[in-house]
Specification:
Layout: H1 2-19, E1 21-34, E2 40-55, E3 58-71, E4 78-90, E5 96-107, E6 115-125, E7 129-143, E8 148-164
Antiparallel strand pairs: 1-2, 1-8, 2-3, 3-4, 4-5, 5-6, 6-7, 7-8
């Protein structure tokens, strides 16, 4: 009897977890800010995330993607691949949400280091997707003893993600 109850509990919990999972895929366009504004004119990127519903209105998951910064004047293009944890809170009774991605931004250009990645977001939730405004930042600080180096690559992004079930 215990085995039957345990099996039933796993089936029920497994079904509930499956029903609340969600993959989202989208893109963003942005205006570089901070140190990136000196060397880049605009940014384009793709976003991908897998989210689980942890509590009513709160989703937690993992996210990645690619952000490409287009160089201006005599500067080369560069890009970052974020690997991050993503959190999202949907307000009840309103189709708006706030979110935060935290992790590491891997540089795709030789000679440019990766760094701490953060992206707070504010958005509008729709049935099949979400529209958001976010501030993406990758920061790096190195202390070589005799020399300190720090920089911050940022962008204000407008993005849209499609929900894929």
């Amino acid at each position: 009897m215990k085995k039957l109850l345990l099996l039933g509990a796993f089936a029920l919990l497994g079904g509930a977890a499956q029903a609340q999972e969600g993959f989202k895929l989208g893109g963003h366009i942005g205006v570089p800010v901070s140190d990136a504004s000196d060397v880049s004119s605009f940014t384009l990127g793709v976003d991908a995330a897998y989210m689980w519903n942890i509590a009513k209105g709160f989703d937690l998951g993992v996210t990645t993607g690619y952000s490409h910064f287009f160089g201006k004047d005599h500067f080369d293009d560069f890009g970052f691949i974020p690997v991050a944890v993503s959190g999202k809170y949907k307000f009840s009774g309103a189709p708006v949400f706030v979110g935060l991605d935290l992790g590491y931004g891997i540089s795709t250009k030789n000679g440019v280091d990766g760094g701490f990645y953060a992206q707070p977001k504010f958005g509008y939730q729709m049935k099949k997707g979400e529209l958001y405004l976010g501030y993406q930042t990758i920061s790096n600080r190195r202390d070589y003893g005799w020399y300190r180096s720090s920089w911050n690559v940022g962008a204000i992004n407008l993005g849209y993600n499609f929900f894929l079930k």
